[in-house]
Design goal:
This protein has one domain: 2-Layer Sandwich (Zincin-like), CATH 3.30.2010. Helices cover 35% and strands 15% of the residues. It is built from three helices and five strands. The chain has a three-stranded mixed beta sheet with strand order 1-3-2, with helices on one face. A two-stranded antiparallel ribbon has the order 4-5. The longest helix is centred in the middle third of the chain and has 16 residues. It is globular and about 40 Å long. This is WLM domain-containing protein.
């Protein structure tokens, strides 16, 4: 998790444009972090905090990882972040599928 401390800057976070094929993503391990915050169907409605926190942990797991994509290292980092958030009461793992920015996410 030391890589998150080294790489994370709150000033690089922004809301992305709602368009086909774009959701949340990280550029160059934290140089830029973009979030899809609103449903494509009803752009005035923000996603719930728990879902957005899950997405934030997902992106931070990319920042923490040396490897690219959803490697075993990424999975370990994501699991560690989720575990700590659940332990602290900041996140509720609902173990359900959700639709998010045009994607179907499983077991959020």
């Amino acid at each position: 998790m030391s890589r998150i401390k080294e790489r994370y800057r709150s000033s690089v976070i922004s809301e992305g444009v709602i368009e086909e094929g774009m959701t949340s993503y990280t550029v160059n391990k934290g140089e830029k972090i973009v979030f899809c915050l609103r449903s494509r169907d009803t752009s005035s409605v923000l996603y719930d905090d728990n879902l957005l926190f899950s997405v934030a942990m997902h992106e931070l797991a990319h920042v923490a990882s040396v490897s690219e994509s959803h490697s075993p290292e990424f999975q370990d980092n994501f699991g560690l972040l989720v575990g700590k958030a659940v332990e602290r009461g900041s996140f509720v793992h609902r173990d359900q599928d959700v639709d998010y920015c045009g994607l179907h996410l499983t077991r959020i």
